[in-house]
Amino acid sequence: MTINQSGWKPEMAVKGADAAAPTFTGNKALMLEEPLIFEIGSTETTGVDFAEGDVKHDRLGDLTRKAPIGLPGLSEPETVRHYTRLSRQNYAIDLGLFPLGSCTMKHNPRLNERMARLPGFADVHPLQPVDTVQGALGVINELAHWLITLTGMHGVAMSPKAGAHGELCGILCIKAALEARGEGHRKVVLVPESAHGTNPATAAFAGFTVEDIPATADGRVDTAALKARLGPDVAAVMITNPNTCGLFERDLKDISDAVHAAGAYVYCDGANFNAIVGRVRPGDLGVDAMHINLHKTFSTPHGGGGPGSGPVVLSEALSPFAPLPYTARTADGHVHLIEEERTEEFSNEHFGGKLDSFGRMTAFHGQMGMFTRALTYILSHGADGLKQVAEDAVLNANYVLRSLEDVLDAPFGSAGPCMHEALFSDSNLAEGFSTLDVAKGLIDEGFHPMTVYFPLVVHGAMLVEPTETESKAALDQFIGALRSVAERAKAGDASLKSAPHFAPRARLDETRAARKPVLVWKDAEPQAQAAE
Amino acid sequence: MRYLPLTPADRTEMLRVIGAESIDALFDDVPEAARLSGTIEGLPDHATELSVERHMTALARQNTVAGEVPFFLGAGAYRHHVPASVDHLIQRGEFLTAYTPYQPEIAQGTLQMLFEFQTQVARLLGTDVANASMYDGSTACWEAIGMARRITRRGKAILSSGLHPHYVSVAKTMAKYTGDVLETGTPTLSADTDLDALIAAIDDDTSCVVVQYPDILGRIADLQPLADACHAKKALLIAVVTEPVAMGALKSPGEMDADIVVGEGQSLGVGLQFGGPYVGLFGCKDKYVRQMPGRLCGETVDADGRRGFVLTLSTREQHIRREKATSNICTNSGLCALAFSIHMTLLGEAGLRRLAGLNHAGACHAADRLAQVPGVRLVTPRFFNEFTLDLGQEARPVVRALADRGVLAGVSLGRLYPGEDSLANGLVVAVTETTTPEDVEALATALEEVLA
């Protein structure tokens, strides 16, 4: 069966700033258009050779598949070309500075990739007998040790699959701890306005009522308002530190003390840990739970949107409730895997008393492939390197802030230095020009835009996080580009409204995509094919 | 330090531009008491690639590598051959080091790939649509139960006893906090699935029935009667596929009218990786698309009228809806979805069918051979590439003893269901295209010795 092989037409439309004679193919030199696999593949083609021999479906009974599936295949050369061409339509850290605030797009060391692919890690089954996987469990245990040490916490849950999953883990630990105390009636979670959307979504999922806490004029949590709201119905406070305005929450220890005195717990969103790694330990600030995005601070690749990994460090009060499974190393050097059994055996000595796990969050042990990468990263940097990471990340962000505050409004710029990210607003752009126009203008300059319209506490927010892996030359070029685009937006340069002009696509119609969603390829109708 | 490009001269010059006296001045907002005095306890200073590589390699060597021994483990994670080009392509920096495609003009590579992935998954599972992936099969399964609650506005989910016990465990954890009522059961060491009991249990409070296909013991059953029974009570049928290669040989759950089909996509492209990262598959009928969790990629046009792709229907998601979102999920499993999609493109339909056939044929051969071992009984007469043996004695120590003989024999039901005596003798054995006749013979011989 051929899947609409003739259905694809080269895209001929060319207009805008780079208008030139249309090409026959729709390609423009190295800018290559690529059809869908459903337009070029066929169900008879395969790029894999198989062993010879007859195959009988004799144990499937009447469940043998008869209907066609509709999966196109390509030969290996065609496959390599298809995905290589697609890859070239992506921006990536490997191509340039990727200043997404709160996303920590740093260089992904290739040694990490090599280590994750060692057969002893990559080709090991999660349910193998534990003494055949001592090295894999050893990686989990060793990484756990460093995460606990770096954060000054008591324990760590390694299994959460990503940041939001880690948030859920932390909130479930808090809920379990409250219930164990007989205070399950505490139903309110306080979340600052500047929080990531996952914070309120997570708290709501776990059955809590979310209440906003306002920010002060200098971009921090309103400590007085927060303290005033504490009471017997409050279960937890979720605070991001450094926060999403790029500022350190100076009062966090004071807040934590007040929260604890009121019988509640402090959840810290650790998305921005990169700014303080090696310099500040959240455990010293009274935090009870904090997820660590290994794909941010510890450089595991973002991969176009995952996989992430979100271990959660826990205080002594919350550690007994950590999810299954977890590891424990005994004096003989053996690393044990504690699943639905053996929890009695490993209760007292390793977990500060009673062990009362709230349950399992995922089928297996977490993101092993990310653990090997993160451990490789930590060992490569060492104590001096990690401290330098935080310092250079903060230095780079302040350099961007001070180099651009004359041209863009920096709402908290006068309050002192920022941490790992610099925040600007759209307040001095020309009438009719928005943050979106600046972002799209940056694309034409060869940069990925910064985070836009987040945090919500600043109008038309532009949040720039350069990270420590950018050279001064790269920063200077980025600063020059953003300055140029900002000046055009202030001067009312109409060409910005239709930017980007040089990207593989112009602005895409998102309203149309949502109004009548086309989420899968539909083969052309037979009569339509006949007409061609 | 090789990953940090700033020179001391750069730092000095940048501090001058900033107007700060020192790096420490930039950390002025950190209270003195919170500053880490000294260095990180026990952590040495930065290390060369070579020395880190030695340390990690030493750890890796402490593990028994699946590909180096006769290997028969499955139970939710399967060892398949992944073509070399898959790993090469996912390491293209433009895929590996890209972010979530929130700026679609410069992320068409990821977006088109996701659109292709969604279509492949939907066709494979037999659903109308599929999303851009979840963390893994177990979290996808839980999300499906939550989705059924939102659609039916009912809170009772009936989980088949054939559902992977870790998937059940995840659902139980979550249900504690959402208030869903879960009815669960333990499988019997027999050929009989619990389909009839499930049908009998559906009532007017039931949001959904969750059934695994093939199930944890490898059994397969026609889901159509169950789907009909669900729909008669306005409940949804959720099918869970932990071995997507099976879809090359078996009728898809969608063909049997399942409403939501979720799965673990690890078999294609991803590898074993000691349990993660994996890739959750999530498909459903068209009419439920606005209740789906997770990212969705959709087709649209750009300002010049050219076809392009964007993330869409994001009003379901946490970054827009915050506490009213359909799920708190943010990240998907993008790079694993890419690996899945490339592997599927290399296979194509013909290749997938051939691969499934080889898996099934190999499993049939292994089942016949192992059933000849004295004391061993084949529990599951119908299966795809995974079947259950009754060893006539506790399987867990047998697995342990076989590992000592250099054979990774399968997953004992004692490991999956600790404390369930009725299942203790069960061994779940998976066979794929990577299993050779010599591997089967090695297992059979070793099993004869250990059971004797």
Automatic annotation (TrEMBL), chain A:
<dbReference type="GO" id="GO:0016594">
    <property type="term" value="F:glycine binding"/>
</dbReference>
<feature type="domain" description="Glycine dehydrogenase C-terminal">
    <location>
        <begin position="391"/>
        <end position="490"/>
    </location>
</feature>
<dbReference type="InterPro" id="IPR049316">
    <property type="entry name" value="GDC-P_C"/>
</dbReference>
<dbReference type="InterPro" id="IPR015422">
    <property type="entry name" value="PyrdxlP-dep_Trfase_small"/>
</dbReference>
<dbReference type="Pfam" id="PF21478">
    <property type="entry name" value="GcvP2_C"/>
</dbReference>
<comment type="function">
    <text>The glycine cleavage system catalyzes the degradation of glycine. The P protein binds the alpha-amino group of glycine through its pyridoxal phosphate cofactor; CO(2) is released and the remaining methylamine moiety is then transferred to the lipoamide cofactor of the H protein.</text>
</comment>
<protein>
    <recommendedName>
        <fullName>glycine dehydrogenase (aminomethyl-transferring)</fullName>
        <ecNumber>1.4.4.2</ecNumber>
    </recommendedName>
</protein>
<dbReference type="InterPro" id="IPR020581">
    <property type="entry name" value="GDC_P"/>
</dbReference>
<dbReference type="Pfam" id="PF00266">
    <property type="entry name" value="Aminotran_5"/>
</dbReference>
<keyword id="KW-0560">Oxidoreductase</keyword>
<dbReference type="InterPro" id="IPR000192">
    <property type="entry name" value="Aminotrans_V_dom"/>
</dbReference>
<keyword id="KW-0663">Pyridoxal phosphate</keyword>
<dbReference type="GO" id="GO:0030170">
    <property type="term" value="F:pyridoxal phosphate binding"/>
</dbReference>
<dbReference type="InterPro" id="IPR015421">
    <property type="entry name" value="PyrdxlP-dep_Trfase_major"/>
</dbReference>
<dbReference type="GO" id="GO:0019464">
    <property type="term" value="P:glycine decarboxylation via glycine cleavage system"/>
</dbReference>
<dbReference type="InterPro" id="IPR015424">
    <property type="entry name" value="PyrdxlP-dep_Trfase"/>
</dbReference>
<dbReference type="GO" id="GO:0004375">
    <property type="term" value="F:glycine dehydrogenase (decarboxylating) activity"/>
</dbReference>
<dbReference type="GO" id="GO:0005829">
    <property type="term" value="C:cytosol"/>
</dbReference>
<dbReference type="GO" id="GO:0005960">
    <property type="term" value="C:glycine cleavage complex"/>
</dbReference>
<feature type="domain" description="Aminotransferase class V">
    <location>
        <begin position="186"/>
        <end position="303"/>
    </location>
</feature>
TrEMBL record, chain B:
<dbReference type="InterPro" id="IPR049315">
    <property type="entry name" value="GDC-P_N"/>
</dbReference>
<dbReference type="Pfam" id="PF02347">
    <property type="entry name" value="GDC-P"/>
</dbReference>
<dbReference type="GO" id="GO:0009116">
    <property type="term" value="P:nucleoside metabolic process"/>
</dbReference>
<keyword id="KW-0560">Oxidoreductase</keyword>
<dbReference type="GO" id="GO:0019464">
    <property type="term" value="P:glycine decarboxylation via glycine cleavage system"/>
</dbReference>
<feature type="domain" description="Glycine cleavage system P-protein N-terminal">
    <location>
        <begin position="1"/>
        <end position="446"/>
    </location>
</feature>
<protein>
    <recommendedName>
        <fullName>Probable glycine dehydrogenase (decarboxylating) subunit 1</fullName>
        <ecNumber>1.4.4.2</ecNumber>
    </recommendedName>
</protein>
<comment type="subunit">
    <text>The glycine cleavage system is composed of four proteins: P, T, L and H. In this organism, the P 'protein' is a heterodimer of two subunits.</text>
</comment>
<dbReference type="InterPro" id="IPR023010">
    <property type="entry name" value="GcvPA"/>
</dbReference>
<dbReference type="InterPro" id="IPR015424">
    <property type="entry name" value="PyrdxlP-dep_Trfase"/>
</dbReference>
<dbReference type="InterPro" id="IPR015421">
    <property type="entry name" value="PyrdxlP-dep_Trfase_major"/>
</dbReference>
<dbReference type="InterPro" id="IPR015422">
    <property type="entry name" value="PyrdxlP-dep_Trfase_small"/>
</dbReference>
<dbReference type="InterPro" id="IPR020581">
    <property type="entry name" value="GDC_P"/>
</dbReference>
<comment type="similarity">
    <text>Belongs to the GcvP family. N-terminal subunit subfamily.</text>
</comment>
<comment type="function">
    <text>The glycine cleavage system catalyzes the degradation of glycine. The P protein binds the alpha-amino group of glycine through its pyridoxal phosphate cofactor; CO(2) is released and the remaining methylamine moiety is then transferred to the lipoamide cofactor of the H protein.</text>
</comment>
<dbReference type="GO" id="GO:0004375">
    <property type="term" value="F:glycine dehydrogenase (decarboxylating) activity"/>
</dbReference>
